[in-house]
Amino acid sequence: xxxVQAIQSGLRTALQDDENVLLMGEDIGRLGGVFxxxxxxxxxxxxxxxxDTPLSETGILGTAIGMALHGLRPVSEIQxxxxxxxGFDQLVSEAAKYRYRTAGEFQVPMxxxxxxxxxxxxxxxxxxxxxxxxIHTAGLKVVCPSNPYDAKGxxxxxxxxxxxxxxxxxxxxxxxxxxEVPEDAYTVPLSEAKVVRQGAGLTCVAWGAMLxxxxxxxxxxxxxxxxxxxxDLRTLWPLDIDTxxxxxxxxxxxxxxxxxxxxxxxGAELVSLVTERAFLHLEAPPVRVTGFDxxxxxxxxxxxxxxxxxxxxxxxxxxxx
Length: 321
Fold this sequence. Notes:
By secondary structure, this protein is of the alpha/beta class. Helices cover 36% and strands 18% of the residues.
C-alpha cells in the first residue's frame, strides 16, 4: 500500500469495527478529500458517518469536541496543516484541557488528521510544518508517521486513545512509498520510537518525510566510513526519550532533522533533553538540520527543505568533530 491507501485502510477498519467512529471534514465525502484519502468511504458507510462539512475549521473542531464529549470518536480532516490555525483555539484551549479541568470526568477521544510539509510545490499556504505548536500544548498527543505500515497502525491506535491526537501526514510521500500493510486491524503504540538503521558512530533523529531523507543521507555517510544510527520518532509527543537517550549514550553524537523552521522547532527541545540527560556521553555538539526561519518558498522549495544533500555534510562534520 501507499501511505494514502494505508490511511484509508485504517479509516475503513475503524468505521467497520466501531459504530461510534465517524469522519468529518471539507470535501471528504463525495470528493474523497483533496488527496483522495477518504475516497469511496461515504458511499460505503453513508453520509451520517462520513460527513462533508462547511468551510470552517473552527466549526469542524468545535463540533468534534462536542461529539467526543458525548461518546463518539470523531476523526476530523483539516485539508492542509496550514489551515488549522482558525481552529487552533478549539484544540489548545478546549480539547487539550477538558481532562484536566474536569479532574478526569470528561475525556475527548478525537483525532485531527492533517497533511503537512513541503514537497508538492504548494507555496507558503500549503507547506507548513506546525508540529511544535501542538507539542507545546499540554493535553495533546502528536503523531507523525513516515511510512504506510506505521501510518495505519498509529492511526488505529490514535482513534482508540482517550485523548485528542493531532495526526500529521507527510503529503510529500503520500504516493512515493509502497510497502506491505496488513488488511486486518493492528496498532502501533503512541509511545515508541523505532530504530530504523543500526549504527555506532552517530545518532540521527527525524520523522515524517524527512526520515526518508535522513535514511538516504545515512547510507551515503556509510560509504564514507561514518556509521549512522537513524531513529524514526513516529509519535512526537509523548516522546520515547529512552530510545533516544540510549542511542546517544552509545554513539556520543546527535543530529536532528526536521523541515519546520529552526527557531523553536522540536529539534531544539530534543537537543535540550539530550543535553540534560546525556551530557557526559556527548563527544560533539548536537546539530540541527532544519528549514529556515522564513515563510515557506515556492520557487526555492528544495533549497528550503533539509534534503539528503544538506543532511550529509552535517553527519560527516559531526562524526569527525
